[in-house]
Amino acid sequence: MTAIADNATKTCPDCRSLLPIDAFRFRRRGSDLRQGICRACYNTRTRLYRRAKRSKIIRRFAAQLRRERDAKKVTALCARMFARFGGLDKFAAAWKANIDAAPPGSRSALDSYLALFRLVEIANTPAPQPDCSLYTDEELREEMDRCVTAAAVRLLAGLR
Ligand SMILES: [Zn+2]
Question: Could you tell me the distance, in angstroms and rounded to a whole number, from the CA of residue 95 to the centre of ligand 1?
């Protein structure tokens, strides 16, 4: 095996530049094999790959949100995204960046807005009322107590 001279050069197929060998990353730590493309092109490819991956995750999330009818599942879906992106703020920033990057006239931005409106709609939909006809007398009394208590709380809050 021949050692590569310090003054060796290599042409990057992406940017077509003839560059010194140390402008090419090692394939992995401790390896003496270099990447085929230069550091700058490698970084650009990595950035584009990560952006495309984030965009795909967000588009899938928006599509799921638009279809989902169960408020609890919507909450879980949102919680997963917040965890994945490192919090609500970071997720919101990534979603906005995704909308901004959508080509004009594309479906992607519209889908995001539809998902947001769906989120508002779900947040404003009251929880389904229990079917009292299936209750025992005891359960019915408990439900009535809950309703009376809730009404009293609302009344007191209004009087304050
Ligand atoms: Zn290059």
Answer: 30
Please name which of 37, 46, 36 lies closest in space to residue 15, comparing C-alpha atoms.
37
Distance 40 CA to ligand 1 centre (A): 6
DSSP output for 48-116: HHHHHHHHHHHHHHHHHHHH---HHHHHHHHHHHHHHHTSHHHHHHHHHHHHHHSPTT-HHHHHHHHHH
pTM for the full model? 0.64
Domain boundaries, the chain: 9-37, 50-123, 129-160
- Average pLDDT rounded to a whole number, residues 67-96: 92
**For residue 113, how far is its CA from the centre of ligand 1 (angstroms)?**
38
Chain segment 45-59, per-residue pLDDT in tens:
999 999 999 999 999
Instruction: For residue 48, report the distance from its CA to the centre of ligand 1, in Å.
Output: 14
Residue indicated by tokens 């208590």 = 149
